[in-house]
């Protein structure tokens, strides 16, 4: 090949590279332009408040005067506050009971909805309705249902001469009464997720199990349950993160009643109290970051131990 031909080929390759580079830059420009609104939204409504809250957690600030740096004093104050310790205990109980209960109910319902029965679309819609209902509306309705004097639940119990407990004002059962409402609210979403997991299990496993004479119960524990563990893991992770941050349902249930504060106060409700009722933004920010660290730690622990019980097909 002559020198002229080599130079011509080299120029041609350079022109192709320049053309590709210009096309890449043009596509990258439009890509960044399209995601710019989302980036701005994340920066303004999530990242900036998170950074500001982290910095405020080291200060004493009432929202009006200039913040005063106090180091870790807010954290020390919180761990000496019995009401905050009670809020942590309430939140942990709420999460430890509601998440497994919701997952268990959702698994049973999803298995029933995975059968070929008439009106399947209606039943699936019925179970999903609580998910699309506003928590405030749910809280108001259930507050009436739980009412000791004229609530529907105690009215029905009274017909059968059964004990009529004070669902919300008995400190021994108040938190569990709210947990039942939360489970009712979240089970529909978990049903949809687990139903999708069930429909992803290959029928060949069941056909092989039937040939081997395995019973339905054996098929459930040996095939169905192991193969939907990735979905259950997702349900546990998202459920745990949501339940640790529960606020709106608790806020509606407590209402103006100071008697319900101790048995129902959660960490996020405590953040609201300190931030917007007591105007102690520094302590409220410290609470928020302690909650963030707790959620991060529990999530990491779950990811570490998921190798012991989550089975991925193939």
Automatic annotation (TrEMBL):
<keyword id="KW-0813">Transport</keyword>
<feature type="transmembrane region" description="Helical">
    <location>
        <begin position="219"/>
        <end position="243"/>
    </location>
</feature>
<dbReference type="GO" id="GO:0005886">
    <property type="term" value="C:plasma membrane"/>
</dbReference>
<dbReference type="InterPro" id="IPR035906">
    <property type="entry name" value="MetI-like_sf"/>
</dbReference>
<feature type="transmembrane region" description="Helical">
    <location>
        <begin position="29"/>
        <end position="48"/>
    </location>
</feature>
<dbReference type="InterPro" id="IPR000515">
    <property type="entry name" value="MetI-like"/>
</dbReference>
<feature type="domain" description="ABC transmembrane type-1">
    <location>
        <begin position="88"/>
        <end position="302"/>
    </location>
</feature>
<dbReference type="GO" id="GO:0055085">
    <property type="term" value="P:transmembrane transport"/>
</dbReference>
<keyword id="KW-1003">Cell membrane</keyword>
<keyword id="KW-1133">Transmembrane helix</keyword>
<protein>
    <submittedName>
        <fullName>Sugar ABC transporter permease</fullName>
    </submittedName>
</protein>
<keyword id="KW-0472">Membrane</keyword>
<dbReference type="Pfam" id="PF00528">
    <property type="entry name" value="BPD_transp_1"/>
</dbReference>
<feature type="transmembrane region" description="Helical">
    <location>
        <begin position="87"/>
        <end position="113"/>
    </location>
</feature>
<comment type="similarity">
    <text>Belongs to the binding-protein-dependent transport system permease family.</text>
</comment>
<feature type="transmembrane region" description="Helical">
    <location>
        <begin position="173"/>
        <end position="198"/>
    </location>
</feature>
<dbReference type="InterPro" id="IPR051393">
    <property type="entry name" value="ABC_transporter_permease"/>
</dbReference>
<keyword id="KW-0812">Transmembrane</keyword>
<feature type="transmembrane region" description="Helical">
    <location>
        <begin position="125"/>
        <end position="145"/>
    </location>
</feature>
<feature type="transmembrane region" description="Helical">
    <location>
        <begin position="284"/>
        <end position="305"/>
    </location>
</feature>
């Amino acid at each position: 090949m002559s020198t002229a031909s080599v130079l011509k080929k080299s120029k041609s390759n350079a022109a192709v590279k320049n053309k590709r580079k210009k096309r890449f830059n043009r596509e990258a420009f439009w890509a960044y332009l399209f995601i710019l609104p989302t980036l701005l939204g994340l920066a303004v409504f999530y990242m900036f408040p998170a950074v500001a809250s982290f910095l405020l957690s080291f200060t004493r600030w009432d929202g009006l005067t200039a913040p005063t740096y106090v180091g870790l004093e807010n954290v020390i104050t919180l761990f000496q506050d019995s009401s905050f310790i009670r809020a942590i205990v309430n939140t942990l109980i709420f999460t430890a009971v509601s998440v497994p209960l919701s997952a268990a109910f959702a698994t049973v319902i999803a298995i029933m909805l995975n059968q070929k029965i008439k009106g399947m679309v209606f039943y699936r819609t019925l179970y999903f309705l609580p998910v699309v209902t506003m928590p405030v509306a749910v809280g108001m309705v259930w507050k009436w249902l739980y009412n000791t004097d004229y609530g529907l639940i105690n009215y029905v119990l009274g017909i059968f001469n059964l004990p009529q407990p004070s669902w919300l004002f008995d400190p021994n059962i108040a938190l569990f009464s709210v947990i039942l409402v939360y489970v009712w609210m979240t089970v529909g979403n978990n049903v949809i997720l687990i139903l999708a997991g069930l429909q992803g299990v290959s029928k060949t496993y069941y056909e092989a199990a039937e040939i081997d004479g395995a019973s339905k119960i054996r098929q459930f524990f040996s095939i169905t349950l192991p193969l939907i563990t990735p979905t259950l893991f997702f349900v546990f992770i998202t459920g745990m993160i949501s339940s640790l941050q529960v606020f709106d349902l608790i806020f509606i249930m407590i209402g103006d009643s100071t008697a319900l504060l101790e048995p129902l106060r959660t960490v996020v409700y405590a953040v609201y109290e300190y931030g917007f009722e007591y105007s102690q933004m520094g302590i409220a920010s410290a609470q928020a970051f302690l909650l963030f660290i707790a959620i991060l730690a529990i999530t990491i622990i779950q990811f570490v131990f998921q190798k012991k019980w989550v089975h991925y097909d193939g």
